[in-house]
Write a structure and sequence with these properties.
Helix content is 52%, strand content 15%. It is of the alpha+beta class and 62 residues long.
């Protein structure tokens, strides 16, 4: 096995790790529900912990 083969193997392993990390992040993401935002009172198609995306960004909520 030469250096190019080793590099290919390393790249493939890193890509697999990155994909798995991204899939875990998506699986851990809260789904959200439609409703009225607790902070601004506006209707939103996706509330996370009762707060819309605009308010989560504005108030730096996670």
């Amino acid at each position: 096995m030469d250096d190019a083969d080793k590099a290919d193997g390393l790249i493939a392993a890193r890509e697999k790790e990155a994909l798995a990390a991204a899939q875990r992040a998506v699986a851990d993401m809260p789904q959200g529900v439609p409703g009225e935002c607790e902070l601004c009172g506006e209707e939103s198609p996706r509330l996370v912990r009762g707060v819309c995306a605009r308010c989560r960004d504005k108030h730096k909520l996670k």
